[in-house]
Amino acid sequence: MEQVNVGIIGLGNVGSGTMAILAENGEQIDLKLGFRLRVKAVCSEHTEQKKIPEALGPVLKTNDWRQLVSHPDLHIIVELVGGTQVAAEIVNTAIANKKSVVTANKELMASSGAELWDRAIAARTNLAMEASVAGGIPIHAVLREGISGDRIVALYGILNGTSNYILTSMEKRGTPFETVLAEAQRLGYAEADPSNDIDGIDARSKLAILSALAFGEKITPSDIFTEGIRRIGPVDFEYAHRLGHTIRLLCAARQTEDGLVLSVRPALISTSTILASVQGSYNAVWVKGHFGEDTFYYGRGAGPLPTGVAVVSDLMRVAREIRDGSPERVSPFAHKRLGIYKPIPVARQKRAYYLRFRVMDREGIISALAGILAAKHISLDAVLQVPSENKRDLPFVITLEPTTEQAVRQAVEEMSRLDFLLEPPLALPIEPPL
What we know:
- The structure is a single chain.
- This protein folds into 3 domains: about 5-135 and about 305-340, NAD(P)-binding Rossmann-like Domain (Rossmann fold, 3-Layer(aba) Sandwich); about 140-300, 2-Layer Sandwich (Dihydrodipicolinate Reductase, domain 2); about 345-430, ACT domain (Alpha-Beta Plaits), CATH 3.30.70.
- The protein is built from 14 helices and 18 strands.
- The chain has helices spanning about 15-25, 25-35, 65-70, 85-95, 105-120, 140-145, 160-175, 175-185, 195-200, 200-215, 235-240, 305-325, 365-375, 405-415, and strands at about 5-10, 35-45, 60, 75-80, 100-105, 125-130, 150-160, 215-220, 225, 245-255, 260-270, 280-290, 295-300, 340, 350-360, 380-385, 395-405, 425-430.
- β12 and β13 form a beta hairpin.
- The longest helix has 21 residues, at about 305-325.
- The protein is elongated.
């Protein structure tokens, strides 16, 4: 075999970035491989309107992904359409046609990746998904092979660049959430419907994949406790800073005596931690190993070229196997078989908590709130109030000694019925030193 032929389905940002890298870096890629990696066919909804780099040479264009997947001369199919329904059809059909698959599809891999890998093994093909999490950070390779000799005890990540851009912009400039979100949409960081990003859904899929790699358990994304960032405002950063903390949308996976606890939620983290310094649209993953202890991975979490690098790197790895063979392939999930995850309710975990209130000021507010907390056996740590002239919308914060999430939820539910509150209290965990 003189070359390995590739077909790309989906020519959006990531598809275009992938083609640009294959065109501009083709000579270096071929030198590293020792043979040619050639894009022979492409497919998208409006392929005729897409510009294909001349350096790729003659390329078959089609609007029908079935024509591409069944093409007899193609060895690897790159799925970059996103979503799950059509993407699943593409991947399953490619495997049925004995094609290896490279994908950047986090939703599909989070929900069905283990089953797709089993089908790929049965068909003696490959499935690679490095680009599905954290764009240009090779975190899959790290967990799959780089530190596979360790036993992971915890994994923390900032895995959604849109949310991190919004939070860090609010933090730097004191700009309201809605204003920064609109700015992120203008700059292309956020979609017209930003729900997947700001409600934590995108990050949840990514955490499900990384947790499968790190802990060897098959994770159902809906089992992960998830909260978004819609209620975070500049005032929360002001109070967090007074406490020596900042706020990030934190993806957390922790191995406990009871089992694996997973969550995606805004949390206070100490400004002394390296995760607190992650700004803008960057991503980061902090892995704690039993033997190797702490390792940290940082880089662009999205974008055509960083994500394209991950796609092309996967292409090269799969192409080597097709060309030279591999006596024992490493599963994309780092384990021969994934165990069954038994969800451990996040409500069991104990943390210190940050409670932020907005009230119409009057006598007896603190005593009323303290009474509810005391009835739940929750101890106050401190009460903080930034001076404000607006007594009709007065923010203040109560921090709590470590207690269970369940107790905090019960207290917040009861507090929400108090007539002096303008909105339900905002409860955020204060993470211990990471």
